[in-house]
Specification:
- With 449 residues, this protein is α+β, with helices and mostly antiparallel strands.
- 16% of the residues lie in helices and 36% in strands.
- The protein contains 5 helices and 30 strands.
- The strands form 8 sheets. Strands 3-30-29-28 form a 4-stranded antiparallel beta sheet, with no helix packed on it. The chain has a 4-stranded antiparallel beta sheet with strand order 4-5-6-7, with no helix packed on it. The chain has a 4-stranded antiparallel beta sheet with strand order 8-9-10-11, with no helix packed on it.
- Strand 24 and strand 25 (382-389) form a beta hairpin.
- The longest helix is centred in the first third of the chain and has 25 residues, at 46-70.
Length: 449
């Protein structure tokens, strides 16, 4: 047994060994002491940094006490040294999961509100995250593409009869090495269910865009990716036209753009037109909408929406998102109103804002979650939001809820299993749909709401 003075020195020096405990992440590993030092310069949350240091000091004191005690007896006491294994595991759980989750994930304490009557439940069907016209038409969609287990086959869900019709899409063959010849994916869909399919050749990476008028109809070729056409076309609200954002070959840098509006099918009566964007100047463009009735297109120019008529004249679009960091994929237009939400935030809660005929407002998610999907009903009175955790730690559940646009109060809220990532859709006839891990629920929206 060592002398008390020697034991104290050994315990004091040995306690610093806790700072050499490795913290193992998915892609790298650090020593605890190294992690603490890095936190002083990179962690903006003082409380989080203080907690990290306090836990380390507490563990160091505990390790020193145990080491001092173990040196004062025989081999039985020295069995305490085996505690380094569970200590390492505990510190990894604390610093890699428990402490970050405490500061990064805000508890969702709102109660469930599920008073709406179920119209139907479509077992196994999962609403797909597919691009549709950004401008919300009235009436609302009558169909939405979904996936069915076990192979995720594409099927069209129609309301109000809640029927499913599988799409007839050619299956890819396999090479002798077992690779597929091509890949297919849905790129855009109209409110009636017509869709644009992208087929990518595995060997050449050439993309071919095809029109699917109806789930059982044969695919009709539209165009092939090239220097001119670098992004998939969009489909008009009525499904009678397709529009391409075209790069003007030979221009730039910076590159200039124009939009080609073409008939979706040979039978279409839509007028074909070319909309020159060059007078608007060089910019980053994303084509979002084409409307053959109002004869206008909607583009996302740099950081905001812009309406351009078939005559080439631009028209302002009301849009004042303030601090909301929206992108083309996180923006909806309804009449002269809009809904937008953060596409990405490095830290802090995501925000969603709106200015509609039914009211204006702002709403924030709980910290640690982002907006997976959002929808607005055709009257502008309700906004549906689906949230999913942004982190791989913690146990935050997904949630789907509906807000009143005049007060911001929730009138519907249901919690879903983690990583459900549900789409939300307001259907024609006052119906609302969302998916859980078992299927898709179609609910009746009360008229009083």
């Amino acid at each position: 047994m060592a002398q008390p003075t020697i034991r104290r020195w050994i315990a004091a020096i040995g306690s610093f060994g806790v700072y050499a405990v490795p913290l193992v992440g998915p892609h790298a590993a650090w020593f605890l002491g190294e992690s603490l030092l890095q936190g002083f310069g990179s962690n903006p949350q003082i409380a989080w940094m203080v907690t990290n240091v306090a836990v380390a000091i507490a563990v160091q004191v505990l390790a020193g006490v145990v080491l001092y005690w173990s040196l004062g007896g025989g081999w039985v006491r020295k069995m305490a040294w085996l505690g380094v294994v569970p200590l390492t595991a505990a510190l990894n759980v604390a610093y890699m999961s428990a402490i970050p989750a405490f500061f990064l994930i805000e508890a969702d304490t709102a109660a469930e509100r599920n008073p709406w009557t179920e119209h139907c439940f479509v077992r196994g069907a999962e609403l797909r995250p597919i691009r549709t016209p950004v401008t919300q038409a009235s009436p609302s969609p009558r169909a939405w593409w979904a996936a069915l287990p076990p192979d995720g086959r594409d099927t069209l869900l129609r309301v109000p009869d809640c029927s499913l019709t599988d799409a007839v899409i050619p299956k890819a063959g396999q090479s002798p090495e077992g690779y597929l010849d091509f890949f297919t994916s849905f790129q855009f869909a109209s409110p009636e269910g017509a869709a644009i399919i992208e087929q990518t050749d595995r060997r050449t990476s050439v993309r071919t865009w095809l029109m699917l008028v109806d789930p059982g109809a044969p695919l009709q070729p539209l165009a092939v990716s090239s220097d001119r056409y670098q992004s998939p076309p969009v489909l008009s609200h009525r499904g009678d036209a397709v529009a391409y954002l075209e790069t003007v070959v030979g221009s730039g840098p910076p590159m200039l753009h124009r939009v080609q509006v073409r008939k979706a099918t040979p039978e279409s009566t839509a007028r074909e037109v070319e909309v020159d964007l060059a007078p608007l100047g060089p910019a980053s463009y994303v084509l979002m909408d084409v409307d053959t009735q109002t004869r206008e297109i909607l583009v996302w120019r740099d950081d905001r929406p812009l309406v351009v008529g078939f005559d080439g004249q631009s028209r302002p679009v009301p849009f004042e998102p303030a601090e909301i960091r929206a992108q083309y994929s996180t923006y909806l237009r309804l009449g002269q109103g809009w809904v937008a939400w953060d596409a990405y935030r490095e830290d802090g809660p995501y925000q969603i804002g709106w200015s509609l005929s039914g009211g204006s407002g702002r709403h924030r998610t709980n910290t640690g979650r982002s907006v997976t999907s959002a929808a607005v009903d055709p009257t502008g009175r309700l906004i549906a939001i689906s949230e999913t955790t942004t982190l791989s730690i913690g146990h935050a559940r997904d949630v789907v809820y509906v807000l009143r646009t005049d007060t911001g109060a929730d009138v519907f809220r249901t919690y879903l299993p983690r990583y459900t990532r549900s789409q939300v859709v307001f259907f024609e006839g006052g119906l609302f749909g969302y998916s859980n891990l078992e299927g898709t629920r179609i609910l009746k929206v009360p008229e009083a709401q």
